Structure formats: C-alpha cells, structure tokens
C-alpha cells in the first residue's frame, strides 16, 4: 500500500519542483519579477492562487477537525469567510491593484502604506515589517505543523522528519522561482484541493449508504451536531468574524496587486468564489461524514484534525490515497510558500533596502529575498517543534493579527482621502496590540480567557478602525500631493474599467 502512496507523492513533488525551475528560468532577475511576477497573472491563476494560499492546511485538517468535534455549529466560520472573501474581491482588489501602481509601483503592502501616506521617516514601513514577521512566523508554523502531522500519521515517519520535508520542498521552489513559481504552484495545488474535497466526502457518503443513512448515524451520536442552533450569539459572531480578516492578509491581497488587468478582476472573483464555496462545503462535509463513518465502522481516531487523512487512506486505492494526501500537502505548501515570499519581500524591501543598502542592485535584492525565504523557513521549523500545537488555533491567532493590524488600514486608505499617516500608524499599532493582549494578556471574563469569549479579531478590527478615524481627524489633513494621488487612483480606476 505504501508504495502506491509514495509514487503519487513523488510525482507531486516532482511537479512542484519542476514549476519552480521553470519559473526560475522565466522570471526576470529584478524585484518586481521576483516579488510580483511582473504584474502579469491571469484571472484563473490570481483566483486559485489567492484561494489556495488562503485556505492552507486548516481547510483539510483544521476545519474538518472542528466539524468532527462540534458539528455544524462551526459552519459560521465558512459563512463568514465566504462573505469576507467576496467583499474583498469587490472592494479592495480593484482599487489596490490601481493604487499600488499609481503610488510609485509599490510591490509590498508596507511600501504601499509608506507611499500612500508620504511617510518619509519609514516608520510605517518598519512597524508593518515587524507585524508581518511576527504574525507570519506564527502562520507559517501552522503549515509546518500540519506537514509534520501528515507525515507522522500517514507514513509512520517522525513528526520532525515531516516538518523538515515540508519546509524543504517549499523553500526549494519558492526561493528560486519567486512569485511566479508560488502563484503557479498555488494554481495547481488549488485544483488538487478542489478535486479532493469533492471526492473524499462523496465516497464516504456512498459507503455509508447515502445522505439519509449518514444523517441517521449522526443523530444517533448526538442530534445537536446537525443543528445550527444551540450556539450563542457571541459564538456565531466570533465564527462569522473570520471574514473580517481578508482585508488585511498580505499573502492574499498581494495577488490582487499582481493581476495583469483590473478588467479581469471580475472573472477572477467568479472563479475564486466558486472554488472557495465548493471547497468549504467539501471541508465541512469531510468532518461531519467522517464522524459518521468512523462511528459506523467502529474505528477510532486520536486526532480529529486527521479525519481527512483517515478517510483518504481507508477508502481509496493507494495511488489515489497518495493523490489525496498530496492535496493536504498542496494546501499546506501553497500557504507556506506565499507567506515565506511576503515575509521575504518585506525583509528585503522594507528593511534591507530601506535601511541597510539603499543602493543595492536588483540582483542583490533578489539574492537577499531568497536568503530571507530560507531564514524564515528555519524559524518556522524551530517554532514547530511542539507536536501538540493546534493548527486551527495557530491560524486563528495569525489571521486575527493581520486582519486587525492591516485590514482597517487597507480598507479605509482606499476609500477615505482624509486618512492621515498618524491615523494609519495608530490603526496598525492598536489592531496588533489588541490581538496580542486578547490572546496572551492575563485578563479573563467570568473565568474564561478573552479569546474564548469572542474571537480577538472583533475587538481588534473595531478598535483599529476607531483609532484610524479619531487620530486622522485630530491631526493635520493630508498634503495636496497625497490628495491628488488619491484622486488620480480614482480616475485611473474608472479609465481602466471603462
């Protein structure tokens, strides 16, 4: 059995590395080419790349695990994510694509903030870079943990070996192929994930005797597992508020900056949302149907987050099992590679070039970017040594951090020309600090940690937005140049959409 699985995985790894080599040969050896692919992504690659880099290992392991434990009460996460992603495509994507180009062809989010608010002292850039490194260290760790668990559960390898293999392959194609390799592999990985999330729950349903038999099995376990009720209002708000995070995820919104045309954003939105909705339904069904199957067969499952792995290795021929396990690797690697590249871009453009080597050549910056990919990956491997880390918990912490620190700033900066540099700084600091205090602070409410009462992105996002408006209105209005650039963005957007 293991031979067939290994063959499928070997083919998958070969394809990923081949794409990395192809992208290395095709990518221009300059910063724009390495970090944004020359702003030449097609709508389909933009959509699936954004989706695959977003959904990571939590969609095939974390979300099914949550459904396995708590039932449909967790479906509000999927609802919130779908609404948030749609609004992100509708509001942020077209304006950010135009504004980053108008604002001196900014290639990173911190660079865009600096130019948008004429921050000549680079304060915004430094703070953003710190936020990116801190929260992406947590986010990347979640992917490496998922990879370690996959190899440990499926191949009888040690957790540490799984961590090293996962990180090693991602670094190989990300460091050399850059943004083009990351986006192209994301597209392929998104297709694999899509097929897997339809196939696994469908076959499990068939083996259980259909929908009615599966429903009866779940009711026999606990009728409340199929109910959307019985969940508190705060729990629903916490779950649905995941959608707020989309506006501030650097590894997702950077895809919008790289699409070749604003006119093609509508096509990308339709492809991306179709992919996302079907995939989220599939992930939800994996957890619910997986619970029914394991109960009906008398099997046992130690780790609920491994339910997709269990079904993949139990219900299918080894060659197909290998393909399905590759879907988990695809989810994991697509997100890790995107996060590594964004962190690398920030370290290179926002710290190295800005403060250490202003006169660095494009080739030198690309080399620093590649070395940064390796350095961040090593940090993630070190942080992933705790085998008991929860994938969904790690992702939720980082998601809330970015959503609160950057989300309000990105959203408001694209629509409100009165926003000031001081307002942006206040929003970033207040958002990030609120999340960190909410998670790690020594505060409780009725004996519960604050993060157990309500998801930290809710207070983080709200307080960040309030800080932006209050501080912006209390400080000197933007310069005439800043205002004219804002108006240029609006007129350029209308021209490109005409």
UniProtKB/TrEMBL annotation:
The membrane-spanning stretches of this chain are: 6-25, 67-87, 123-145, 157-180, 187-206, 226-247, 273-294, 306-332, 365-384, 396-416, 423-443, 449-474
Q: Any keyword Acyltransferase? A: no
What are the alphabetically sorted keywords of the record?
A: Amino-acid transport, Cell inner membrane, Cell membrane, Ion transport, Membrane, Sodium, Sodium transport, Symport, Transmembrane, Transmembrane helix, Transport
Q: Name one GO biological process term.
A: proline transport
Pfam families xrefs = SSF
Q: Does Hydrolase appear among the keywords?
A: no
Entry's Gene Ontology molecular function annotations: L-proline transmembrane transporter activity; proline:sodium symporter activity; sodium ion binding
Q: Which GO terms describe its cellular component?
A: plasma membrane
The UniProt entry lists membrane topology as: Multi-pass membrane protein
Q: Where in the cell is it found?
A: Cell inner membrane; Cell membrane
- Reactions catalysed according to its record: L-proline(in) + Na(+)(in) = L-proline(out) + Na(+)(out)
Q: What does this protein do?
A: Catalyzes the sodium-dependent uptake of extracellular L-proline.
The family annotation for this protein states: Belongs to the sodium:solute symporter (SSF) (TC 2.A.21) family.
The protein's name in its UniProt record: Sodium/proline symporter
């Amino acid at each position: 059995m293991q031979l067939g699985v290994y063959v499928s995985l070997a083919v998958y790894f070969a394809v990923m590395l081949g794409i990395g080599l192809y992208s290395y040969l095709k990518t221009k050896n300059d910063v724009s080419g390495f970090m944004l692919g020359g702003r030449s992504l097609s709508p389909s690659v933009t959509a699936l790349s954004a989706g695959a880099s977003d959904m990571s290992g939590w969609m095939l392991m974390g979300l099914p695990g949550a459904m396995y434990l708590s039932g449909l009460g967790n479906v509000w996460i999927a609802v919130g994510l779908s609404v948030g992603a749609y609004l992100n495509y509708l509001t942020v994507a077209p304006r950010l694509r135009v504004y980053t180009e108008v604002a001196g062809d900014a290639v990173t989010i911190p660079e865009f903030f600096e130019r948008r608010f004429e921050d000549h002292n680079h304060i915004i850039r430094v703070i953003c870079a710190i936020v990116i490194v801190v929260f992406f260290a947590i986010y990347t760790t979640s992917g490496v943990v998922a990879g370690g668990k996959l190899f440990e559960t499926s191949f009888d390898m040690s957790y540490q070996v799984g961590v090293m293999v996962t990180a090693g392959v991602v670094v190989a194609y990300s460091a050399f192929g850059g943004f083009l390799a990351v986006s192209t592999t994301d597209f392929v990985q998104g297709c694999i994930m899509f097929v897997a999330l339809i196939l696994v729950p469908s076959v499990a349903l068939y083996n259980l005797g259909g929908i009615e038999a599966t429903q009866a099995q779940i009711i026999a376990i606990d009728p409340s597992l199929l109910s959307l009720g019985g969940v508190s209002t705060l729990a629903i708000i916490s779950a649905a508020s995941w959608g707020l995070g989309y506006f501030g995820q650097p590894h997702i919104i950077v895809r919008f900056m790289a699409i070749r045309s604003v006119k093609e954003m509508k096509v990308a939105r339709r492809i991306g949302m179709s992919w996302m909705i079907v995939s989220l339904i599939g992930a939800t069904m994996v957890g619910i149907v997986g619970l029914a199957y394991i109960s009906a067969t008398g099997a046992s499952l130690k780790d609920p987050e491994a339910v997709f792995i269990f079904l993949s290795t139990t219900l299918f021929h080894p060659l197909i099992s290998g393909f399905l396990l590759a879907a988990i690797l695809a989810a994991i690697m697509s997100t890790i590679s995107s996060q590594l590249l964004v962190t690398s871009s920030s370290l290179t453009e926002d710290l190295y070039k800005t403060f250490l080597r202003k006169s660095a050549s494009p080739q030198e910056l690309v080399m620093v970017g590649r070395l940064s990919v390796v350095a961040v990956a090593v940090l993630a491997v070190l942080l992933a040594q705790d085998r008991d880390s929860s994938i969904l918990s790690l992702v939720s912490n980082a998601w809330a951090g970015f959503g609160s620190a950057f989300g309000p700033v990105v959203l408001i900066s694209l629509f409100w020309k009165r926003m000031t540099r001081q307002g942006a700084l206040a929003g970033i600091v207040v958002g990030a600090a609120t999340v960190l205090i909410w998670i790690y602070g020594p505060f409780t409410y009725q004996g519960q940690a604050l993060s157990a009462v309500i998801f930290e992105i809710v207070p983080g996002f709200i307080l960040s937005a309030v800080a932006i408006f209050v501080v912006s209105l209390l400080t000197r209005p933007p310069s005439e140049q800043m205002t004219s650039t804002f108006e240029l963005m609006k007129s350029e957007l209308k021209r490109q959409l005409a």
